[in-house]
Amino acid sequence: MKSDSEAVLPHDSMSALIECQDLWKVYRAGDIDVQALCAVTLTIQRGEMIAIMGASGSGKSTLMNILGCLDAPTKGRYRLNGVEVSALGQDALADIRNRQIGFVFQNFNLIPRTNALENVQLPLFYRGLSLKEQRGRAADALARVGLAERVGHHPAQLSGGQQQRVAIARALVAAPAILLADEPTGNLDTDSSRDIMGILQTLNQQDGITIILVTHETDIARYASRQLLMKDGQIVRDERRATRPVNEPVVP
Amino acid sequence: MSAFLWLTILTAFRILGRNRLRAGLTMLGIIIGVGSVIAMVSIGEGAKAAVRAQVASMGSNVIIVLPGATTVGGVRGGQGGAVTLTVADALDLKKKIPLLVETGYGKRDVMQVVNANKNWNAPVNGISASYLTIRDWSYSSGGPITQTDMETAARVALLGQTVVENLYDPGEEPVGSTIRIKNVPFRVIGVLAPKGQSAQGSDQDDILFIPFTTAERKVLGTQFLGSVGALFASTDRSEDLPEAVESVREVLRTRHRLQSEQADDFTIRTQVDIGRVQEDASQTLTAMMFAIASISLVVGGIGIMNILLVSVTERTREIGVRMAVGATRRHILMQFLIEAMTLSLVGGVLGIVLGVLGARTTTIFAGWPTIISPQAILVAFVFSVVIGLFFGLYPANKAAHLNPIEALRYE
Ligand SMILES: Nc1ncnc2c1ncn2[C@@H]1O[C@H](COP(=O)(O)OP(=O)(O)OP(=O)(O)O)[C@@H](O)[C@H]1O
Ligand SMILES: [Mg+2]
After folding, report:
1. pLDDT (tens digit per residue) in A160-169
2. Mind listing the domains of chain A with CATH numbers?
3. ipTM summary value
4. Out of B66, B139, B257, B409, which residue is the most buried by the measure of CB atoms under 10 Å away?
């Protein structure tokens, strides 16, 4: 296992955190090509909180997966932290996902029959940290999302909102540069959604973690300082706006 | 790395414990395979050791010559039919073949032996004094038949343990007492140390020795004076045995005036031959059992592969999550390999326990000697690791090469 310092990618503070140029993603389904992304060009600075909106099938998840180094574009350039990602091999991509990126999914994706603490430990486990350090940092992360009391609970013993908070703790335990959340509140009620968005906003404002989230709800999108609208694989609108303050109710 | 390994092993055990029935059924093939290997090797080793002890107890440098020709298949025909061996043969062999340190002779018949109000039918052996040296008998009390006993045709007897058990009350001292064979009184001068079962399964302690001369004249009778039931000879070293056997054959053929086209009218045997046949037989048995065990190990391995493939499918989403948080392909590969090996190792250990118990049970109930060989246990252990590795590789590789996005989306 590599040590923490070794794996830090070249950090050029002048360049943007994310630079996408002319990204294409084409899926072949039978005889027809589905263009999930068409010539997407996008620059994201450190510390931004971005909401991506758009109709179903507009390519939001596809873009998120490429940004998260889970998928490779069919064509185009993607620089993360000044490093050309498309040139990297499987293990290097796994390392980027481990250290620089945190994922939060719509369906939480916790490992079943495994308690909250162990779920949160997972990124550190793959980083090869000692068990003691894994546990300590995982407990801290759970405390940050208000689940200090729930470390021993299994996903099945937690509410949806709590499960999503465990997922956020798992994403932030690795101290990533970017947190990618694909419809993080899609399966939650209004109260839980507000909790989750509050946590994400705090992580963005206090820890400076760059957050990119996909949502269908304008209320949720209002937490972000920048909103992208996607249509047919293209970004058709990109605007910055004032954010909703933390703790303001989502529903008036 | 160590934290990774440790936690992965722990997780593997947890998953195993969660599906105990499934894990148990999966391991069954390995358990049975390893169990039968251990049990069979133990039984085989036990049998081999018994044969070896037998050969040693007979003396690995002993030549036995029996009257009658060898027929096809090694079966000796017409024992006692043709009386072809004599005391003179024995003496002549000793004189003509320097390799032989000792020659002896004997004849036997089953007769009723009586002590007070007890009787027992025992093989009564009239033997030369040298026979006891050749066969390397030792005594639990008393002493041997001497040359003087031979010359004077003394009425003395040596008893085997089984004979003692059947003629005497427990605690009664046979040496010095008088028994009757065919109404002739004999003084017991010694009791033989027990030798146990022979390689062929007969009781070697059911035996009684008297001087050959006494037997010939007073008990067993004879067709003509000096005819013997068997000749015995021994060499100093067992390496000399083949050469000695050839010399014995030549001398006897000359003495019996056999023409070159005539077959031997006697059969020469060595304990080594007998032992070899027995060992070959038990080796064949062991080989067969190994084949059966290998098949069940392979079946067990396939069981592991099957259940692992199911597990990979069931946990596809989990694999996607692990990849998303930074697991490399190697991590995933290792995880499933370790799970496979945990299954096969636990199965292997249970199999070893089962095999040892099986061997013990065989000894207790069937009375077969068994030897639990540490090598067999080691081999079984290594085998189960290898089986786990080999049959875990395909499912583990399949898991490691899942596409993370498809895995995450898997329902
Ligand atoms: N593996 C795939 N094979 C073929 N086509 C795919 C695949 N994944 C996505 N697509 C197609 O790419 C397009 C974009 O999909 P994507 O999942 O990015 O949409 P989305 O904006 O996230 O939609 P939603 O809001 O419903 O989640 C869709 O037309 C979809 O059918
Ligand atoms: Mg989507």
Report:
1. 999 999 999 9
2. 4-9+46-72+89-240 (3.40.50.300)
3. 0.91
4. B66
